[in-house]
Design a protein that fits this description.
The chain is about 35% helix and about 15% strand. Helix 5 (about 145-150) links the parallel strand 5 and strand 6. The chain has a single domain (about 5-260), classed as Aldolase class I (TIM Barrel). Strands 3-2-1-8-7-6-5-4 form an 8-stranded parallel sheet. It is of the alpha/beta class.
Amino acid sequence: MNLPFIIAEIGSNWKKSEDPQINFDCAIRQISAASLAGADAVKFQLFKTSDFLSPSSRNRPDAPNFDEYSLPEEWLPKLAEHCAKSEVWFMCTAFSVEGYEKVAPFVDMHKVASPEFHDLNIRKYLAEQEVLPVIYSLGCAESRDLNDLLQKAEVKDRDIFLECISEYPAKASDYNLFEIRNFVSLAKAFRLSLSWGVSDHTKDLQLAIAAREQGATFFEKHVDFFPKEGPPGPDSEVSIGASDFKRYCSVIKAIEPIDYDIKKRECRNLYGRRLIDGGYFRE
């Protein structure tokens, strides 16, 4: 795995028509375009609407139905094969244990969306899988949740954590990089060397640059390389196109993280402790 590692979140942007063949062809083309733009992985989503609804609301006549935006299960082996040919990792977020069992034979890495971070059945199932790395988005997690993970030894060295918020699109200032860096730092006391990054819902490079400079190695970005084909979908508003994503990849991969310990020592030598604490150097 090359770092930094950039995931092109295709999500539901393969759906451009009511014709399944047109949509499948679009999924294939999205993968190819992501690879050419510099992505290291592509990601889709497999779910049932019932995964998101409470038991009491599933049978209501006015209950929403999102099934049309779920990746068709029968596409999994074909898309995985095309990813291998395109030299990108294949990923597909699921929203239930049953869903993860379906995608497991085909994906190169698991991804858990923010709401499912609190699904103990999913966490238990993935923890028992000894082969694939697992990425967790932390949009619904709080500091005490992360501390519990460490105290209960539910974290493994292979796990990756993404700072995430639920705004679509978001501003860079909405993200709290200090908290996730603090969690990764605390994990060292438990002899864990964890990787971290951002699930980037912004429309520019500001967040990604700041995260990379602070040591982030994983980046997830919504993309749609064919936005003019078909009506907008659930992921359209936060997705960027080919030229923007290509620049996103090239900029991130050109940045070397800042060693803050070295910078602190340099500033201490230049200005003294009081002035550092007063703001000459601030993380």
